[in-house]
Design goal:
heterodimer, A: 254 residues, two-stranded antiparallel sheet, 40% helix, globular, B: two-stranded antiparallel ribbon, 17 helices
Chain lengths: 254, 419
């Protein structure tokens, strides 16, 4: 472990202190998209959040955890109390020890975090050909390009350009740094049947699930922007008043 | 006018034992300030306000934060998600650090342009530099606390710089880490220092102000105060002007906090620290980028195929020298004229230096290879050339423009507060 770390440190310091060729694995540029939660007054599209949750549960959650989000958080964005209870109850969590000292499983409660697909990292790797599917709680904040990048990644499974040497078990992805990704194409036309009847095109599904993940990463976004508008309005008016006072006070000097 | 004349018996009783009201009146209300200060003089008090905001938000965050490698990342996310207005506190604190550095850098460049480091303000200038160094320590230790990928790798890279010290380097690094890698003891001590340093800064700020009130504020003309006609009382003139400055600065601050809270940060820091995965680019916060560029710009130094100083050590020396050289500034710039306004060549060199620092920051954000490395080396060389060669030379060669007779005379001519 220590040797490994020192090797890592050495590698970094070489990168820091010595000239190295520019890295090939740059993040490709992704186009900016219009999101419901973008801009100064942005809010999460409630329909997209519902559809996004459906995609997360039916597709993403097969491999990816969402450790920082609790079922109760859904009630902040329009899910009713009974609805949240019903969603949580579909999952099982290990709890305990009980009075007999035994661990037991019980249906999840709204207060539980989203139940992870694998009990630990090792199991996750075994199930995924050695790769570890990252936790999605902060994914839109943790990647350059944010929601635009995640969207581009989800719709980025295209045929590789001629002459591209694809490693076995990897997939070509136009948006992924280095263009070789281990994640199977998760979405395809009609991969889910939307409860609200929306046509499940690839772009629609990608947009919906990214909206859901953006909410998971920044559940405070709506409150933040609402407060921000008020704070800015106040500051602008207050500062203008201060400027008037300043002019008034200083006029005695000039 | 003493407090005794205007206040009742309680104030008199306190005054006889602790003359605090007289002190406040002398230093905050009546304090004679040059009448021609422009808006560049606002940034000292802005930096002071930012320091207070950082300490207040920091103390509240500390009540919720857990300094343990297994819990730090999650405790920050708990603050973001479950603590009432925790996201506001954290974004105020995180962006507040950037705003503090922004204010300090403007404050310093103002000092560079108007010759604020010259006699009799050398110690005032040094105290400011000590504050900058303490701020850098606070900024760095604070960046490590969320224990994301950039936290961990920044801590690893920066502490490893000390391994460049000959003979005892590795021992120093082990001592800094409190072990054989960046781990829990490192995080715990960084947290302790991050909590301590701001109070040290408050102390040095206090001495900075003490020195300031002894030598009095400089001014855009760089002239000494020659009499009461040159000054106005601090209150109400500069209290109201400072308050307007706070308002303008807070608008910028709030725009970041509420609408682009992560713009100045690195996405990688939202990935929990992982000692086994090195991020492709390790970059510091924006306010460290110029130093980072200098660190990486210096090649091996040697002759006839022997390396006398390794690139790593040379880079570390250059990086520290980039700040230490500022301590010698009062003696490098020999011109008796303070203000750059009356120094035609110096003025141009000043703006070249500003551009050079921005170029260094831009290079620092990019991988040290190819064109960036070349530009970084030129910019680093120019930085030292400016202070060590050009400034002494210019102060000797340059013919300054004629100075106004006094602050009051210049102001009544109507040119005092402009520019």
């Amino acid at each position: 472990m220590r040797r490994l770390l020192m090797a890592g440190v050495a590698a970094v310091l070489v990168g820091v202190c010595a000239p190295t060729p520019a890295r090939a694995a740059e993040t490709p540029e992704v186009a900016a998209r219009d999101w419901s939660f973008g801009g100064i007054f942005g809010t999460f599209d409630r329909g997209a959040l519902r559809r996004g949750l459906q995609i997360h549960r039916e597709v993403c959650a097969a491999c990816h955890s969402l450790d920082l989000v609790a079922y109760r958080n859904l009630s902040d964005v329009g899910f009713g109390e009974d609805e949240v209870k019903a969603i949580a109850a579909e999952y099982e969590v290990v709890d305990g020890p009980n009075e007999e000292g035994e661990m037991y499983t019980r249906p999840a409660l709204p207060s539980d975090r989203f139940v992870a697909p694998f009990p630990n990292e090792q199991v996750a790797r075994i199930a995924n050909n050695g790769a570890l599917p990252p936790d999605l709680s902060l994914i839109t904040k943790a990647r350059k390009g944010g929601p635009d990048y995640i969207h581009a990644l989800l719709v980025g499974y295209v045929d590789p350009p001629e002459g591209f040497e694809l490693t076995e078990d990897l997939f070509y992805n136009a948006a992924f740094p280095g263009h070789q990704i281990r994640m199977m194409p998760p979405l395809f036309e009609g991969a889910v049947e939307y409860a609200d009847g929306t046509h499940a095109s690839l772009d629609q599904m990608a947009s919906d699930v990214v909206t859901f993940l953006a909410w998971a990463a920044e559940p405070e976004l709506e409150a933040r922007k609402r407060l921000g508008v008020k704070v800015l309005l106040f500051l602008i008016v207050f500062t203008a008043l201060l400027y008037a006072v300043k002019r008034q006070v200083w006029s005695a000097l000039h | 006018m003493s407090a005794r004349q205007t206040q009742g018996p309680l104030v008199t009783w306190i005054e006889d034992r602790l003359p605090i009201f007289t002190f406040m009146r002398r230093e905050i209300v009546d304090y004679p300030t040059p009448r021609n200060l422009n808006y560049w003089w606002n940034f000292g008090s802005i930096a002071g306000v930012m320091l207070v905001i950082l300490i207040v938000t920091g103390i509240v965050l500390a009540m919720q934060y857990t300094a343990h490698v297994d819990h730090a990342f999650e405790s920050v996310e708990r603050i973001m998600r479950d603590v009432n207005y925790g996201w506001l506190l954290r974004y105020l604190h995180m962006n507040g650090g950037s705003m503090f550095f922004l204010a300090i850098y403007i404050h310093m460049f103002r000092g560079l342009y108007y010759g604020s480091y010259k006699s009799p303000r050398e110690i005032l200038w040094w105290l400011g530099l000590i504050i900058l160094i303490l701020m850098m320590l606070a900024g760095f230790t604070g960046y490590v606390l969320p224990w994301g990928q950039m936290s961990f790798w920044a801590a690893t890279v920066i502490t490893n710089l000390f391994s460049a010290v000959p003979w005892v380097g590795d021992a120093i690094v082990t001592w800094l880490w409190g072990g054989y890698s960046v781990d829990n003891p490192t995080l715990a001590r960084f947290y302790a220092f991050h909590y301590l340093i701001p109070f040290l800064i408050v102390g040095v700020v206090w001495v900075h102000l003490w020195s300031l009130h002894k030598v009095k504020s400089g001014n855009p003309l760089g002239l000494d105060i020659k009499g009461p006609q040159d000054t106005i009382p601090f209150h109400p003139y500069y209290t109201v002007k400072d308050n307007f400055g706070f308002g303008m600065f807070f608008i910028l601050y709030a725009a970041f906090v509420f609408f682009a809270p992560n713009l100045l940060g690195e996405p990688d820091n939202y990935i929990p620290a992982n000692p086994l995965v090195t991020p492709p680019h390790i970059v510091p916060e924006w306010y460290f980028l110029p130093y980072y560029a200098i660190l990486r710009a210096v090649p091996d130094i040697g002759a006839f195929g022997f390396v006398l100083v390794s690139a790593k050590l040379a880079g570390v020396i250059a990086m520290f020298a980039s700040i230490l050289v500022l301590f010698a500034l009062p003696w490098l710039d020999r011109s008796p004229v303070r203000s750059g306004r009356f120094r035609p060549i110096f003025k141009q060199l000043f703006w070249l230096l500003v551009a050079d620092c921005i170029v260094l920051g831009w290079v620092g954000a990019n991988p040290p290879a190819g064109l960036f490395l070349t530009i970084g080396r030129i910019a680093t060389a120019y930085y030292f050339l400016h202070f060590l060669v050009l400034l002494p030379l210019v102060s000797w060669l340059e013919k300054p423009k004629p100075l106004p007779e006094s602050i009051a005379a210049a102001v009544t001519e109507g040119g005092g507060a402009a520019g």
